[in-house]
């Protein structure tokens, strides 16, 4: 099971940025044996955790490291690391154990030395205080668990064993498969953007792809829905009526753009709050279609942040989206009986989306003063319009809500990615999943156990009750913002009110 990733460098906080990429790690901390072994863990194992989250809907550009195909199998390295970490007398593997993080203040719910345990049903009780600090993941028990323990310490855990037979071969094959979201990112975006702007926005870009996706696959993602179109347009109109246009809404609710040093500061502060320092590589870029993306790069969980959209009042919401939702649910999923595709099939799990992205999107706006669901609504609307219009027509139709040409261009590229001739109607429909998931979760918010939804991993809210009795619930990781359930549910009601959504309306739709 997964624990913390080995820290390969100590981060000093300089006055000036010296690099765009860091492993955020606390100073004066040592690395445990299991952390050392996990450094070389196969990326395919980690990809099982993250490819069903944000990375399934955001295009992370391929880095130079990704383009290189290693001659040696990463699975042999992972097996070697696992053997190394399990050998107590190995000279090369001796490391001091990782010290448990100290918990201070009332925010953490009491004495860090106290470990609350509940006997009986494996359902998470609302009276339990979960610290949100780094927790180990226990090996899956053979029998149904009878106790739930939430610990603020970091117990020693074993690395997952990688099969040497067919499973390993299947994993290697999955690594070779190019992620569809990387494949559908045009390779000539900047060139076509220049043509489009020079034509006074009348030219329809002709996109090229380094690794084209088959028409059959693209056809499966070319079906836009209008089920929530009325709600999407209403949300956008409300924001325009209040602020005038998107740019004013962005400035008023998002605040100023952050410098790189301020981004590093806020990310570090958030990771300390969640107890996940040293586990995630952080990469800043301005070459990303989305605001952020949690993926696996060179076998390491990697958070990529788009610095051109990182605003002071929105950044923590993005971190709740990527780390507090996708990353923590992925880690929890890895210890469950349905952690593999075979396990999901065996337990007849529903698709994790739209729940996964809906939940993460709710967490993006959770504590905003104005939790208007602008982005989810605009993505939904843009995809629907793209299915009916050419690129140029789509660009002009978005002017109703977005004045800035560069911002409109980005939304159009997201909706039209995968197409070669964008003069034709067509879309990549995945971006509709955000609003779809938000509205379905809000519709059932009174019945959903959100603590349990996080603890069970990458599952749909519809499967919670059925899977609760089958789950491994020891040492699950719960983000700090879910600890106060009363406040959490108040925020859900606020989201409903601000976006003029009613229970009667959602019950009729869903």
From TrEMBL:
> Which protein is depicted?
KIAA0895
Q: Which cofactor does it need?
A: Zn(2+)
Read off the PANTHER family from this record. PTHR31817, TYROSINE CARBOXYPEPTIDASE MATCAP2-RELATED
> Region Disordered: which residues?
64-100
Listed GO MF terms:
metallopeptidase activity
Top-rank taxon: Eukaryota
Where do transmembrane segments lie in this chain?
none
Source taxonomy lineage?
Eukaryota, Metazoa, Chordata, Craniata, Vertebrata
Compositionally biased spans, kind Basic residues: 69-80
Keywords from the named record: Hydrolase, Metalloprotease, Protease
Pfam families according to UniProt:
MATCAP
């Amino acid at each position: 099971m997964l624990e913390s990733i080995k820290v390969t460098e100590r981060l000093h906080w300089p006055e000036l940025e010296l690099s765009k990429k860091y492993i955020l790690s606390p100073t004066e901390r040592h690395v445990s044996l299991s952390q050392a072994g996990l450094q070389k863990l196969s990326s395919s194992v980690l990809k099982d955790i993250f490819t069903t989250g944000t990375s399934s809907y955001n295009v992370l550009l391929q880095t130079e490291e990704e383009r290189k195909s290693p001659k040696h199998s990463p699975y042999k390295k992972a097996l070697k690391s696992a053997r190394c970490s399990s050998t107590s007398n190995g000279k090369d593997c001796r490391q001091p154990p990782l010290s448990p993080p100290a918990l201070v203040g009332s925010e953490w719910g009491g004495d860090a030395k106290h470990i609350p345990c509940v006997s009986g049903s494996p359902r998470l009780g609302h009276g339990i205080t979960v610290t949100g600090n780094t927790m180990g993941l226990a090996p899956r028990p053979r029998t149904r668990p009878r106790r739930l323990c939430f610990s603020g310490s970091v117990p020693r855990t074993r690395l997952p064993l990688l099969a040497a037979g067919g499973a390993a071969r299947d994993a290697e094959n999955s690594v070779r498969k190019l992620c569809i979201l990387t494949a559908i990112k045009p390779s000539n975006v900047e060139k076509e953007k220049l043509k489009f702007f020079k034509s006074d926005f009348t030219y329809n870009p002709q996109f090229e792809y380094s690794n084209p996706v088959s028409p059959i696959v693209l056809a499966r993602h070319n079906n836009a829905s209008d089920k929530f179109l009325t709600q999407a347009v209403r949300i956008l109109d409300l924001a325009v009526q209040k602020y005038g246009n998107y740019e004013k809404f962005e400035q008023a609710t998002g605040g100023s753009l952050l410098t790189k040093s301020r981004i590093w500061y806020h990310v570090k502060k958030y990771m300390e709050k969640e107890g996940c320092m040293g586990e995630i590589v952080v990469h800043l870029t301005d070459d990303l279609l989305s605001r952020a993306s949690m993926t696996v790069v060179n076998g390491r969980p990697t958070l990529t942040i788009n610095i051109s959209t990182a605003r002071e009042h929105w950044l923590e919401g993005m971190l709740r989206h990527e780390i507090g939702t996708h990353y923590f649910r992925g880690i929890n999923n890895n210890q469950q009986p349905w952690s593999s595709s075979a396990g999901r099939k065996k337990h007849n799990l529903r698709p994790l989306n739209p729940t996964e992205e809906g939940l993460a999107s709710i967490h993006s706006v959770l504590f905003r003063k104005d939790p208007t669901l602008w982005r989810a609504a605009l993505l939904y609307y843009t995809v629907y319009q793209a299915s009916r219009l050419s690129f140029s027509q789509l660009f002009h139709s978005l002017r109703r809500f977005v004045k800035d040409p560069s911002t409109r261009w980005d939304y159009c590229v997201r909706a039209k990615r995968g197409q070669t001739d964008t003069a034709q109607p067509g879309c990549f429909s995945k971006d509709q999943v955000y609003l779809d998931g938000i509205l379905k979760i809000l519709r059932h918010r009174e019945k959903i156990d959100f603590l349990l939804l996080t603890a069970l991993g990458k599952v749909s809210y519809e499967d919670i009750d059925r899977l609760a009795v089958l789950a491994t619930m020891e040492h699950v990781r719960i983000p700090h913002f879910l600890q106060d359930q009363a406040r959490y549910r108040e925020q859900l009601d606020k989201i409903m009110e601000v976006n003029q959504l009613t229970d009667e309306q959602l019950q009729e739709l869903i």
